[in-house]
Amino acid sequence: MSVESMAILILLGSFFVMVFLRFPIAYAVALASLFSLLYQGLPLTTIAQQMVKGISSFSLMAVPFFITMGVLMGSGGISEKLIALANACVGWMRGGMAMVNIVSSYFFGGISGSAAADTASLGSILIPMMVDQGYDDDFSTAVTITSSCEGLLVPPSHNMVIYATTAGGISVGSLFLAGYVPAAILAVSLMIGSYIISVKRNYPKGEKFSIINLIKQFAVSFWALAAVLIVVVGVVGGVFTATESAAIAVIYSLFVSVFIYKGLDWKGVWRVLEVCVDTLSIVLILIATSSIFGFVLTRLGVPKLASNAIIGLTDNPILLALLLNLILLILGCIMDMAPIILITTHILLPIATSIGIDPIQFGIMLVLNCGIGLLTPPVGSVLFIGSAVGKVSMERVVKATLPFYLCMVVTLLLITFIPAVSLWLPSLFR
Amino acid sequence: GCGTKPPAEPPAQGEAPAEQPEITLVYAEVNPLDTIVGQTDTAFKEKVEELSGGKIKIDIQASGVLGSENDVLDAMLGGGGTIDMSRISAFALTSYGGEKSKLLSIPYTFVNREHFWNFATSDLAPEFLLEPHENGSGVRGLFYGEEGFRHFFTVKPISKMEDLKGMKLRVSNDPVMNGMVQGLGASPTVVAFGELYSALQTGVVDGAEQPIANYKSNAFPEVAPNLILDGHTLGAIQVVITDEAWNKLTEEQQNILMEAGKYASEFNRKISEEAENKVLEQLKAEGVNVVEVEDITPWQEAVKGVIESATANNKELYKKIVDMK
Amino acid sequence: MPNIFNTIDRIKPAYDVAYKIVLFLCKLLLIVDILITTMAVAGRYISFIPDPAWSEEVVLTCMAYMAVLSAALAIRRNAHIRMTAFDRYLPKKMILVLDIISDFAVLALAVVMIVVGWKYAVLLGSRGSYVSMPGLSRFWMYFPVPLAGIAMVIFEIETLYNHIKGIFVKEEDK
Ligand code: NA
Ligand code: NA
Fold first, then answer.
1. Looking at residue B29, what is its pLDDT?
2. What values do phi and psi take at B28, rounded to 5?
3. How many CB atoms neighbour CB B263 within 10 A?
4. Which residue among B122, B165, C18, C164 is least packed, with the fewest CB closer than 10 Å?
5. Is the ipTM of this complex over 0.95?
6. Cβ separation C116–A43 shorter than 8 A
7. What are the per-10-residue average pLDDT scores of chain A (430 residues)?
8. What does pLDDT average to in each consecutive run of 10 residues of chain B (325 residues)?
9. What range(s) does the Tripartite ATP-independent periplasmic transporters DctQ component domain occupy (chain C) (predicted)?
10. Best residue in B66, B198, B286 for a mutation probing chain A (most A CBs within 10 Å)
11. How far is the CA of A126 from the centre of ligand 1 (A)?
């Protein structure tokens, strides 16, 4: 066995053993990397460097800020008002709050472009709201994290920019347009999935729809809605970036909670910050240590090996298309999105085009595959954030997400085999 | 790393100079391989492998998979052989005590390509390349190249320097670049590179600056189709190797690297002007509003203060470079 | 046996204080991050508010400190995400043993982080600075790693002690 294969075996093998031995995943990831580095004779200082590098991403900053915003909204009375409003809108429908979650992710995706930020922001507001309304916490978290993947497809999407740049010669504008329909299909399939589950689990149904009540609730929740508005208008109008919008949203929620709804005093704010730190304490370290793991995997050429593995396996275009998805899904289980896109694009895109998949269509496939990877154990940042924000154990979230994985795979197959899903909208603007 | 590895197949009997084991050097590149710099990397790699008869392998990890230039330098300076070599912008060494390297990225220093190459082939160049080694940083430069002049591009149409006044321009966060933007009457704005496309689209920033090839490959013309060819800095690049990896090589192998470096440097010189002109033509054909700058003097005047304070420690050396035109 | 434990248990208030101090720091870092980011946005539109070039790097460094320090707190709260799916099939003793094994492993990792983290921070500190602040050593960028190691050791020792105490105290009870 070559040094590389042994190093890969040590990395992945020791990691899975430690996970099953109930090691905290954040530290199991770091230890597995440490063993592999030791075996390869590489310096352990890599651990220090990659941990810091892992946290030092400006777009990641949105996560702590949005979690803080959500917690402030929850304790300061803003969420309460939004619950009443949401109820007035969709309370008549079984599973209405799940629909709200899914639809808001579609729109919020148009702001943040990041599934992690989406789960952090909407999750920390909506999961407590849903639980409050009688939904199970694991279901609420599962709906939140899966629908956050819409944000990867709805423009703007940082990962699509990365793909376009890596692939070369692809218009980011067209790629952006290509994301709207697949994201909508994903949303619809998730809605169908959650409706079925809501009926099965007998989730609550509120009073009948009343336009007067709706108008009343709109008026009552003016200040709460303004929070949403500030973020949307601010980002779309180019006042600040998505990441910055998170900080602005914190300041605004603070202002409304303390001075307008008076749900919190300054002491209360200080106390509430503890909840934020508690949540962040679980999430950020995972992102930091996963970065070491990703670096070791990259340096060992694992994504390259995996991608090369499907070359020459078959000439059948359907099988090949399925294999493309499979390899990306497997990589997604253990790696973060950006490195997968950076490494596999050059290997897999030629295969995809050889069987008639358009580069734009492939970009959408790639992004959704990696998005599913963000929701899968053992390494999945969105899964971790969801689990921390929803305060539900990882296994329970994964179990509750099982039916939604199915919805996502159906969407993925539609994208893979029906080019028009991705290409129709951009073709209108050519 | 650059550890020695047994050859994949046992050598046939009779040959096999046992004292020259195969060596693999891990080489980091931030850009994809099809860019000017990526092609330069490949030229270097192929020459090294040719000259060494395949005994020295260069493992190029492109597209930034090993991290940004600063990440890569942090790994290289930390030692231990995680990354042995890298192609970086000379500018990146500024935050690692590269006082000399800094001079290469002072705004409006090089008047044209010739000027830069006069420097890159002068006696001064080796001294500059060895600066990090002499500083005790543990890396040394092998050769210089360039990825073309950096220019400003904006969302709104522009035709002259004055049009930049009051605009929010995204530049890297180092003090000299920030000073330059202020000197031009605009305000430097911090935006992460990954958010730049969206930031231009929504209008968080009014413009940014990149070499022409990067401007196109990052699809910025889609959202900021106005390019003013002020050429404030020349994107000087260099290939660095850790002292650790260097010292493991025999003198012969070191010579091979230097030889291949010379070749890659010339290759880079040949293709970068060609490639840049080609991209510029494409951009014009795509409808990008390309503005030529007839007289660069007012731009130079505008940022005089920044140039003076940034070169204060190395006045004579800087003058030498300026005089090479 | 319990006597020893009673003696050692007297150190618990010190741990409570340590926890509070670290928590205080984490909250402060979070606030600083939010304020700097807000200031950078405001500074773009309001001339007397600065929009400094260092905002991004400082915000990221603060986040790194918060990430690692708060992670050490999570050790004490036993809040880190781990796979607990098979817990109900395992005997209690077994889980306790597994906990102790993982605690020792994390302790070892913490020591590695202190040693290599310190070495790396000092080395890089002597060789580089922040990009936006040439005057500020890169040491501070990597110092969170050894610092995290120290905080992890502190809280891991307590956790480990509690687990071991769990074994003995239970046996005494029998
Ligand atoms: Na959601
Ligand atoms: Na995953």
1. 95
2. -95, 140
3. 18
4. B165
5. no
6. yes
7. 91 94 94 97 94 86 89 84 80 86 85 84 90 92 95 88 86 92 96 93 80 85 84 88 90 90 89 92 92 93 88 88 94 89 91 93 96 92 93 94 96 96 89
8. 43 49 93 91 97 95 91 93 95 92 93 94 95 94 95 96 95 91 93 88 95 91 96 95 96 96 96 92 96 93 94 93 92
9. 34-165
10. B198
11. 8
Say yes or no: B190 contacts chain C, CB-CB below 8 A.
yes
Which residues in chain A touch residue C144, judged by CB atoms under 8 angstroms apart?
Answer: 51-52
pLDDT digits (tens, 9 = 90+) for B37-67: 999 999 999 999 999 999 999 999 998 899 9
How many CA atoms lie within 13 Å of C167's alpha carbon, on the beta-carbon side? Answer: 13
If you measure from the C-alpha of residue A377 to the centroid of ligand 2, how many angstroms do you get, rounded to a whole number?
5
Predicted confidence (pLDDT) per residue in B307-318, tens digit: 999 999 999 999
Tokens of A314: 């078959």
> Is B89 in a helix, a strand, or coil?
strand
pTM of the complete model = 0.90
**Residue appearing with tokens 């954030």:** A385
Query: What radius of gyration do chain B's Cα atoms show?
Result: 21
